[in-house]
Amino acid sequence: MNFAVIGAGAVGMLTASLLKEAGCSVQLITRRPEQAEKINANGIKRDGEVHFVEASSEWDRIPPNAFILVAVKYSHLPDIIKKLKSCCLDNPLVFMQNGMMHIELIRNLPQQNIAAGIVEHGALKISETEVRHTGKGIFKFALLSGDEKRFLPLLNINGVKAEWHKDADQMLFRKVLLNTMINPLTALLSLKNGELLSNPHAYELLKNVYTELYSAFPEIETLLPFEQVTALCASTAENTSSMLADKLAGRQLEVDTILLYTIRRSPYALPILQTFYHLLKAAEKE
Ligand SMILES: NC(=O)C1=CN([C@@H]2O[C@H](COP(=O)(O)OP(=O)(O)OC[C@H]3O[C@@H](n4cnc5c(N)ncnc54)[C@H](OP(=O)(O)O)[C@@H]3O)[C@@H](O)[C@H]2O)C=CC1
Ligand SMILES: CC(C)(CO)C(=O)C(=O)O
User: What does the DSSP 8-state code read for residue 145?
Assistant: First the structure.
């Protein structure tokens, strides 16, 4: 099976190396040619093992039948969308971003077959050619447009666990709610995921956020029971959330596509989350 992975950050390097290990043919597309050169020379190091994946910053290296997995951040998408409007017109596309604001952005792409992906793995970029697999999980996919049969091969890749979901909105919103609860609190308080449970003040805030979300989205009771939130904090206890990792690295935070999305989707004002939103935006570097 052929893949092109766009973006050689934490998720891009993790996904490309897992697919290569599974015997797939993988073309990694970097933004900077110098990163592609380093990857071609040294491979991708993942937890001490090296996986040789072909990398380039040239989009014409993408085979016409390859699945294109877009593994960049929400804020990087405008450039990618510009490219996709005139190339890779027949390739199936999968967008792997956290959050949900990208769904509107990609609505008018010319490609027929488009899916959303959820990455329930933890990945930390160590260097231009090294990634740490900080949490082993699963990939989830759901159809945004086109023919779902086109994507079913993604569920049968050796050693790469994947699930198909019938309802893209529900799949994505569950993850948004999870990220809305964990990411801002960890980023604001500089806590690891597990400390949201062990720090009594953080735990109180986590419960209050859940209660606030419940008032706006009562379906959360079945979509994402509080026990599932605490179970995830416990199973990723040592993880630095992606929002805290971005803050520590001085990168732009994915606040809008996660937190602002939730605030806007709510039928009522959400004062706790609005406060978190302004605290995070006020501290964000230009
Ligand atoms: N890290 C994690 O554990 C998880 C992340 N996610 C989600 O996955 C998405 C990606 O996250 P993550 O991998 O951590 O982000 P990173 O910031 O580590 O990586 C993003 C990569 O995209 C590259 N990029 C930006 N613009 C382009 C472009 N025009 N062409 C090619 N490459 C480009 C960047 O390149 P450059 O370095 O040159 O700027 C960078 O390598 C996010 O939405 C995140 O929320 C989901 C679950 C877990
Ligand atoms: C679920 C969670 C919070 C795990 O760290 C995550 O997806 C993230 O860090 O963005």
Answer: E
Residue nearest to atom 43 of ligand 1 (CA): 97
Cα separations in angstroms, 33 against 28, 39, 72, 116, 198: 11, 10, 16, 27, 44
Whose atoms come closest to the Cα of 98: which ligand? Answer: 1
Q: Which atom of ligand 1 is nearest to the CA of 76?
A: 26
* Whole-model pTM over 0.90: yes
Residues 117-126 pLDDT 10s: 999 998 989 9
Q: Which amino acids bring their CB within 6 angstroms of ligand 1?
A: 6-12, 29-32, 71-74, 76, 79-80, 96-98, 119, 122-123, 125, 242, 254
What does the pLDDT read at residue 207? 98
Strands 49-51 vs 54-56: parallel, antiparallel or unpaired: unpaired
pLDDT tens readout for residues 137-170: 899 999 999 999 999 999 999 999 999 999 999 9
Query: Cα(148)–Cα(165) distance, rounded to whole angstroms?
Result: 10
Q: Distance between CA atoms of 151 and 165, rounded to whole angstroms? A: 11
Which residue is closest in CA terms to ligand 1's atom 36? Answer: 31
134 Cα nearest atom in ligand 1: 3
Please report the domains of the chain, with CATH numbers, ordered by start residue.
Answer: 2-166 (3.40.50.720), 171-283 (1.10.1040.10)
Residues of the chain with pLDDT under 70: 285-286
Q: Measured in angstroms, how far is the CA atom of residue 241 from the centroid of ligand 2?
A: 5
